[in-house]
Amino acid sequence: MTSPHHSFLWSFVLLWALRTPSGGAADSGPSAAGSLVWGPGLEADVVLPARFFFIQAVDGAGQNFTSSPGEKTFQVKVSSLSEPFSRIWVQVLDRKDGSFVVRYRMYASYTDLQIQVLLKDQNVAKSPYILKGHVYHEGCDCPEPDGEVWAEQMRCPASFPQIQRDLSAFPRVDPQLNAHEIPQRFGRRQSLCHYTIKDNKVYIKTHGEHVGFRIFMDAFLLSLTRKVRVPDLELFVNLGDWPLEKRQPHEKLHPIFSWCGSNDTQDIVMPTYDLSESVLETMGRVSLDMLSVQGNSGPPWGQKNQTALWRGRDSRRERLELVKLGRAHPDLLDAAFTNFFFFKHDEGLYGPLVKHMSFFDFFKYKYQINIDGTVAAYRFPYLLAGGSVVLKQDSAYYEHFYQELTPWEHYVPFKADLSDLLEKLRWARGHDEQAKRIALAGQQFARTHLMGDSVFCYYFRLFQVIGAGRLLPYFSRFFRSAPLRSVKSVASFLLMSFYVGGGGLAVKEVAL
């Protein structure tokens, strides 16, 4: 898609920021007047758990820096003109390519927020930026009543290819019939949550024993309905790993919403619970998110370790083969398990286990291996954002954004059985500039399409189409309880008791 996630102004500034040919840093220091500042965090109406914007260092001759001018080059102050003691946490993350991402999280709502971007006490670009009017924080129940106004403020695309593809199988359904048939068909062996949104309030009814993962969907729905009025709708969310609707298109299909899709199922795909939670908890409970990765992408390309890296658990037999390949070819591939669960009887063959390493340390390595786990490996967005080239296994599973990726442009593909992985690694080593271009294209895709604003837009556009009549809203009679109002932290809400059953890896809800 052609820059659907940005306004014309944001796109223009981004292209301007990328105008300098690749090379070393500019000869002189950054210019306060010449450097660029842009992004959604400079607009009052774009409400996100952690707001963000960007800085591009430019020298006095108008040349972009293409390497870091120093992580302390720019200082950013965010404060309220009406509140002397503003509760706002600010971080400036050096992306090591001459640009910076600035993120800030507000713990209260303010009026007329001021953002100062400084270079040696001089205002940068058009700083200070004044966000006029109400600037709402994440917890504010302040929804925009008009969905299209909100979508325009967020620079949401008109549609997403995956949504169009998924919903084409469901031109019209009967929600009342679904409310009866889906629990009967799936509710005994699988874990589902039946959500109803009515008058922008969220109601739930769970089916199955292991429904703890609903906490992630609960939290995102509550966050979205605090920001915008969502159409009345109903949906059944699959709380397990594997997609469920295996019937063929000519058979009677049930609309099941899942975090992962596959080529042989008809589930409607949403952003994964992992990516969704990382958006909500940026600068909160999580340390790995699409913003933090950008400030921890490791050394420059030429200084990265030329060995491919993989760490993980034994959730698929091909992962065992990957570790075996690494042992046979340690000069090409460093692959090891950090945990055994599915193939514990083979631990003697594929162990010993190695210690967990920080995900940020992955990017000290030039080549990253993305291989399926129980389903698609949900680390893929973070790997793309890290600046290393990703080698991705051919797979029947996909996430909500895979359709927009192009092999050999955004990543290097290898066969599902790993038979050509070593060949692809040798190719990458022997074609360093091409591999670097692929790494940068994948990184730019992640920076453009997988940020928090894009995730909110995806959910809203999906729900908007559902509420527009493709899936007719029907407020089921059994929703008599009070609407969902808040979600406690995972630690206080449930104890995690992992098991392997019909729905795959699940979380068992335990009363505390």
UniProtKB/TrEMBL annotation:
Pathway participation: Protein modification; protein glycosylation
Q: What ranges cover the Filamin repeats?
A: 27-133
Q: Look up the record and report any one GO term of the cellular component aspect.
A: endomembrane system
Recorded hits in Gene3D superfamilies, A to Z, give:
Immunoglobulins
Q: What's an example GO BP annotation here?
A: nervous system development
Annotated SMART domains: CAP10, IG_FLMN
One GO MF term on file is: glucosyltransferase activity
UniProt cross-references to InterPro entries, sorted A to Z: CAP10, Filamin/ABP280_repeat-like, Filamin/ABP280_rpt, Ig-like_fold, Ig_E-set, O-Glucosyltr/Glycosyltrsf_90
**Signal peptide as annotated in the record:** 1-25
Cross-referenced Pfam families, in alphabetical order? Filamin, Glyco_transf_90
Q: Per the record, what are the reactions this protein catalyses?
A: L-seryl-[EGF-like domain protein] + UDP-alpha-D-xylose = 3-O-(beta-D-xylosyl)-L-seryl-[EGF-like domain protein] + UDP + H(+); L-seryl-[EGF-like domain protein] + UDP-alpha-D-glucose = 3-O-(beta-D-glucosyl)-L-seryl-[EGF-like domain protein] + UDP + H(+)
Q: Does the keyword Metal-binding apply?
A: no
- Glycosyl transferase CAP10 domain boundaries: 229-475
Keyword set for this entry?
Endoplasmic reticulum, Glycoprotein, Glycosyltransferase, Signal, Transferase
Q: What family does the entry list? A: Belongs to the KDELC family.
User: What is the name of the protein in this document?
Assistant: Glycosyl transferase CAP10 domain-containing protein
Q: What is the lineage of its organism?
A: Eukaryota, Metazoa, Chordata, Craniata, Vertebrata
